[in-house]
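Question (not urgent): is this output format expected?
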Amino acid sequence: LLNDWATLIVGPEKKTFKMHEGLLCSISPFFKAALEGDFKEAQEHTIELIDDDPEIMEYFQLWLYTQSILDHEETVSDIEWGVLLELYVLREIRLISTLQNQVIDLMIRKLAKANELPGLDMMCGSFARTFPKSSLRKFLIEASARVGTLDEWSWDFTEGNEVAQRDYLNDLVLELYNDRENKQRRDFWKIRCTYHTHAEGEPRCSENTPNPDMCSLLKILAPAPRS
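Got this back:
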């Protein structure tokens, strides 16, 4: 399988990607079942992913072969929030657990650089395609409770996404309520392992590892209680 190639046909435009079957099977039960089972995909070495985004698949292919989401010319400031959110959704839909940690770390670094979150509608879109206990949801809610103000956001929600919007706002209210008596600084980089997934026996991330962007660590105070 390490020498066999799989063809992924991605998006409505049916853009093709060639990747090694062995690599795909090693990082995803989804690809393993499709390429090693009794399905047509295994016989033809081809998988159609019509609902996936070719741009996101390009980032996934880069990560698959280099273990880096960014190429050598990109910085964390260059990659868009939408790409990071879509990569996490790809990780969840295609069961690619090892992709999660790097996506989360890039989100934390991007947050530290710009001190701003993705758009509200964009975050709710991610809620619609992730599980209730998703680490992405946890991170977005905890960051939303501490970064920016509500009057900076556009409240123009996408029609048909009402359930995700409700879930996001409910979780945000609960986080703000639970945090009101705990007005302490939140260093997202230091606690990044909270949002990671690690295999059994794999060591947890060191809290002393410096942020690779060499910028000051993110420390944000929750709004002061009203007098």
